[in-house]
């Protein structure tokens, strides 16, 4: 009889371990689904960051024009924003080396926005690789070599770009808050769009000439973000200070 009870106790213990493991796995999956995942990824590794866990990252895309970039840089300096990330197209950088030099001098981070402003999701792999390689050469000639970030020119990307970016050694960067400044909706609307941002958000803005109201909106939106006790960081700083969760890209 004692032998029987020992066997039964061992069986109960094994079942308990299995049940606890199942509950833990279920809780882990629940947390993954409930929490806002800051990273897109494919099952086998490559990632596209669009959100961190703390601080805030202002990012500016520049693809054409020379009228808006310099005033925006001046405003950032006046507002004592020392950390921001500029995604530049290679063709634009070639045409405006003096503005690129100013971005570097002020200590802002530079990421690649491809070479030509084209939708990567419409291109073959070889064409994407050629465009990125051409952008690399453009920045190399401008002595900007330590680039770790890549953003799809139009914001559209798929698994292919994640894998290509990984081959180049880049992290693909998206965004979690869109200012929609390129639509020129009015200064108040831009401020309201960005005011949705909170800890860990990557904010999309533009310093191309198409975004005519961004510079006017900057002082107010910076003040609003500071009122939330948010620290301004580059995307790379945000990545280095955050853990990542995954969500598969189809």
The radius of gyration is 23 Å
What topology, given as strand order, has the largest sheet?
A: 6-7-2-1-10
Distance between the termini: 58 Å
Tally of separate helices: 9
Number of strands: 10
As a percent range, the share of strand residues is: 5-15%
Chain-averaged pLDDT: 84
One letter per element, helices H and strands E, the order comes to HEEEHEHHEHEHEEHEHHE
> What is the overall silhouette?
globular
Helix fraction? 40-55%
Biggest pleated-sheet summary: 5 strands, mixed
Low-confidence stretches: 2-7, 15-37, 243-250
Helix/strand structural class: alpha/beta
Domain NodB homology: 54-233
Protein name: Polysaccharide deacetylase family sporulation protein PdaB
Organism: Peribacillus huizhouensis
InterPro entries: Glyco_hydro/deAcase_b/a-brl, NODB_dom, PdaB-like, Polysacc_deacetylase_ArnD
Structure commentary:
By secondary structure, the chain is α/β, with parallel strands linked by helices. Helix content is 45%, strand content 14%. It contains nine helices and ten strands. The strands form two sheets. It has a five-stranded mixed β-sheet. Strands 5-4-3-9-8 form a five-stranded parallel β-sheet. α6 links the parallel β6 (149-150) and β7 (171-173). α7 runs parallel beside α8. Residues 2-7, 15-37 and 243-250 have low confidence and may be disordered.
């Amino acid at each position: 009889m004692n032998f029987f009870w020992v066997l039964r106790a061992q069986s109960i213990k094994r079942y308990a371990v299995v049940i606890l493991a199942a509950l833990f796995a279920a809780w882990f999956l629940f947390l993954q689904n409930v929490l806002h995942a800051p990273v897109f990824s494919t099952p086998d590794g490559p990632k596209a960051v669009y959100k961190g866990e703390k601080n805030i990252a202002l990012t500016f895309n520049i693809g054409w024009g020379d009228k808006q970039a310099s005033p925006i840089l001046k405003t950032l300096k006046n507002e004592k924003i020392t950390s921001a990330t500029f995604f530049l197209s290679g063709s634009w950088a070639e045409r405006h080396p003096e503005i690129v030099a100013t971005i570097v001098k002020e200590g802002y981070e530079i990421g690649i926005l491809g070479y030509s402003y084209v939708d990567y999701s419409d291109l073959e792999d070889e064409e994407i690789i050629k465009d990125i390689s051409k952008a690399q050469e453009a920045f190399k000639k401008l002595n900007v070599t330590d680039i770790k970030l890549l953003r799809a020119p139009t914001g559209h990307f798929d698994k292919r770009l994640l894998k290509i970016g990984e081959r180049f050694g880049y992290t693909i960067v998206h965004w979690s808050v869109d200012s929609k400044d390129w639509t020129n909706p009015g200064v108040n609307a831009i401020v309201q769009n960005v005011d949705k941002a909170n800890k860990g958000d990557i904010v999309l803005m533009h310093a191309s000439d198409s975004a005519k109201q961004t510079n006017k909106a900057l002082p107010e939106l910076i003040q609003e973000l500071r009122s939330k006790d948010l620290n301004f960081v580059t995307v790379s700083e945000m990545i280095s200070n955050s853990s990542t969760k995954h969500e598969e890209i189809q």
